[in-house]
Description:
It holds the Pfam family Methyltransf_25. By secondary structure, this protein is α/β, with parallel strands linked by helices.
Amino acid sequence: MLSARESRMENYEQIYQALRTNDKPAWTGDGYPRAWTKLTETLDLLAAASQLPVPGSHILELGCGNGMMASLWFARKGYHVCGVDFSPTAIDWARENFARQGISGVFLQDDVCSLAQLEDHRFDLIFDGSCMHCLTGSQRGQAYRQVRRLLRENGTFIISSMCGEPGYEEDRQHYEASSHILYRKGKPWRTLMPLISLQHEIISAGFIIQSVKVAHNPWWDHVMMAVTARQITGTD
Length: 236
């Protein structure tokens, strides 16, 4: 029997294999143009508000997929990009996408709950490529600890996450409000927290919230938060 970790990796690997076989542009499939437009608008606004480090800084994207979302935007702006994803197919695909476009990036197949291959690295910005809401239970705390370990002092962590509660009746039937978990096929699928609960979780994990931008949708809301790590003191 597969462990929970192995089952999670197998699931994402199968999805990316199907996407690549069917010539889809990225995880968002045919919705990629809309997703890319919304992402670039948001990142442009963050840059204009001086909430991103300067080009040339080191960026890590968690859940980078095939590299065609945040990693691509940052690479085109002149940042040093590193992306990690659970799926070997996604990582091979990302490397090919960047090579084809003649841009530089480092892509690693790794688990965001451990990030063993990044033991000695530090980043000016860590970007959640809509990865954190894919983690449930203790996985979330593990990932937050890795982010704190890898962020440089005064570095920024940008969280891009589902939030709120499901809007559609079908999803509400598979949502456990007490654990904030949305199930698919009887298995935990996404963490979907009310915004205030997500903010409390982030603060409890040792971060300070700098900005919050919520997009409201009929299915569930989506939040983009810029946070920094609280510095450890003798009273912590």
